[in-house]
Every structure is written in structure tokens, then in C-alpha cells.
Amino acid sequence: MRKNIIAGNWKMNKNLSEAIQLVSDLKTELDGKTLNAEVIVAPPFTSLETVNSLIKDSAIKLSAQNMHSADSGAYTGEVSVEMLKSVGCSYVILGHSERRTIFGESDEFINEKVIHAFKNGVTPILCCGESLEERENGTTFSVVEKQLKAVLKNLTNNQIEKIVIAYEPIWAIGTGKTATPEQAQEVHAFIRKLLAEISTPEVAENVTLQYGGSVKPENAKELLSQKDIDGALVGGACLKADSFRDIILSV
Ligand code: PGA
């Protein structure tokens, strides 16, 4: 029932002409291929509109990397969900660990954004995950549970069913250190059980759970073959069209 989704988080990489090049290369790489996963690209704000015009005739979907929870107003440097919609975004990444740790975003703020995104018909790709210290002191499950309970607060079952959750252990992001398929599966199974408690077992079965953190063509297949891993949120390896293609085709 649930969708496989591979999303590429470009982070703060690629100027406009580089973005055009990357998305054009990706289209060429995927041309004529049978895809078993939905493909999403999340370029920086400055390239969203242009990338949208280039993927219109393809199956690739567009995501932003962040948004504010207000409709409009005096929020210098911020972007609203309505603005994202107007340039073709159907997804938005929320609660990425870089937003939490570098920019101080709280669970409460992320919860407001999740609710606001849904209200406006944009699907959140919601990130969660523990730090190295938390993994080492055995609190992974309680950290993930606390994050998810807080950011999913006041969502309807219908919304929970639609959300995409990316489990991204912070110690695996951009470090080249991937969670083993067993480590990742264990947390994914825990998340699905938690979702069943928060909503219903039927709803939880339909939620797409992505793994993120140093996903590469070499490790994608094994990770993606785990029972509760339905996709990947890819950083570094999505910045080259051929490696992103290989990850997409490993589903
Ligand atoms: P990475 O990033 O693949 O470069 O580790 C993943 C992410 O932060 O979404």
C-alpha cells in the first residue's frame, strides 16, 4: 500500500545554472527507466521555480528544504508555504537536524510548520533522529519518540497517513558513516509501532518511512530492502545525477 519515495536534499549547494544542469542530467539518466519509487528533488529556494519548469514533463516532484509557519509578514529571510506552492512544491522538508542544531528550531516550531504545510496541501518530509551521544548512551528510542510525539501533535489520522518521516541519525549525516541496515530497520520498526499507538495500526502501515544519513549507491539496496524502510532522504549522493539515479534504481 505505502509508497516508496527517494528524495534528494541538495542543501546549500548548486547555483542556478548548476541546478539546471543537475536536474537536466537527472532527467536524462531516468529517461525510459522503470521507476519503483517516487522521485523528489529539493533544491535551494533560488532554483525552485526553474527546476519546476524543467521537471513539469517528468515524474519528478519538487520539494523545498524549509518554510515558515506564518502566512506572511515581517519575517526577514523566511519563505511561506503559499510561496512554495506558487513555484510548484508539493513537498517540504521540515525539522532537518541541521535546522534544529544550527538554527535552533524547536519541536514546537516544527509542529506549527507541519500543521501549516498540511493546511495548505503541501506534504511534509519530517526528519527525526538521535545524536551520537544519544545513541551511545542508549536513548535513541526515547529521543525519537519524544521528537515525533511533539512534532505530530494535533495531527489528524488522515494527515499522519500522508506524512513522510525520515529517520536520520545525526551521526550518519554527511559523515560517510551509515547506520547498518539492522540498526536502521530497528528504529523504523519502532517508529511504525509508535505511529500505530498515536493513530491506528492501519494508518501506521501506510506511512512512508525514509532512512537518511550517508546513503550511497553502494549501501542503498540493502537499506531499502528492509521491511520498514520505504525510501531514502539523500544528501551528498544526490548532487551527482548518476549516483542519485543508482540509488533510485535500487528500489
Ligand atoms: P547525507 O545527508 O546523505 O549527505 O548524509 C542526508 C541528509 O541530511 O538529508
Mind explaining what this structure looks like?
- With 251 residues, this protein is an alpha/beta fold.
- The protein is 44% helix and 15% strand.
- The chain has twelve helices and eight strands.
- The chain has an eight-stranded parallel barrel, surrounded by six helices.
- Strand 1 (5-9), helix 1 and strand 2 form a beta-alpha-beta unit.
- The chain starts with a strand and ends with a helix.
- The model has no long low-confidence stretch (mean pLDDT 97).
- Bound molecules: 2-phosphoglycolic acid (PGA).
- 2-phosphoglycolic acid binds at residues 9, 168, 173-174, 212-215, 233-237.
Order of helices and strands: EHEHEHEHHEHHHEHHEHEH
Q: Averaging pLDDT over every residue, what do you get?
A: 97
Quantity of strands, as a count: 8
Q: Major sheet, described briefly?
A: 8 strands, parallel, barrel
Into which percentage range does the β-strand content fall? 5-15%
What is the structural class?
A: alpha/beta
Give the termini separation.
Answer: 15 Å
Helix content: 40-55%
Q: Strand arrangement, largest sheet?
A: 1-2-3-4-5-6-7-8
Bound molecules: 2-phosphoglycolic acid
The radius of gyration computed from the alpha-carbon positions, rounded to a whole number of angstroms, is 17 Å
Can you tell me the overall shape?
Answer: globular
Ranges with pLDDT <50 over ≥5 residues?
none
State the helix count.
12
Summarize the structure.
The protein is an alpha/beta fold and 251 residues long.
